[in-house]
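Bump. Still looking for LON peptidase substrate-binding domain-containing protein structure tokens.
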Amino acid sequence: MTTVRLPLFPLNSVLFPGLVLPLSVFEERYRAMMRELLKTPEDEPRRFAVVAIRDGHEVARTAPGLPDPTATVELGPTAGFGTDPLKAFHKVGCIADAATVRERADGTFEVLATGTTRVRLLSVDASGPFLTAELDPLPEEPGDEAGALAEGVLRSFRQYQKRLAGARERSLATGADLPDEPGVVSYLVAAAMMLDTPTKQRLLQAPDTASRLRDELKLLRSETSIIRTLPSLPAQDLTRGPTSLN
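Sorry for the wait, here they are.
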């Protein structure tokens, strides 16, 4: 597969293929990115790449503040990511296809995108108004026994949902039936579980679907056991994440 070059949108979260990403875009570097995406004809995909931040800040400092009131305001496409942005990001991310890019009256943007394909980050270019990256698309291999593992993960996930709903003292809204395609299951569960960014990143970059499902099965059993022990564990909605303010 050939490499691709796309605009790069670093976030403090992990995007998985098939998952929806709402964004509220207000920083000038990302506003410039959206203006560029709007130049793409409507019948062509408006794509950018999302990578999770390993060491840095999602939103650049725009004014001096604690702990150093004299700190220099950060500007430019690399603001918040140090002198070598490649080192600030995890190396596996996801291409996002923007279905909606709507400019508000104040010049900010409302964006709704969907994750499509995993990519490996090869290089980062900071010479323009926003970051761009050279990316290597990663194929999704099924691995051994992916189908059977997906069935086990779905059973454990439903139990996890029930325990989590009980911990929040609320009824479980099942909604639509969960999918049964192993790859889709693996990404949906990875996105829906309450996990820290490094763990979600580990799931994203799993070598194949079966490996991801095996990891999720262990995590689900562990997390369900924790919720059973600590019924007051705080939680967020399982199938919704917060809008990233960028």
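The CA atoms of residues 61 and 67 lie 12 Å apart.

Edit: fixed formatting.
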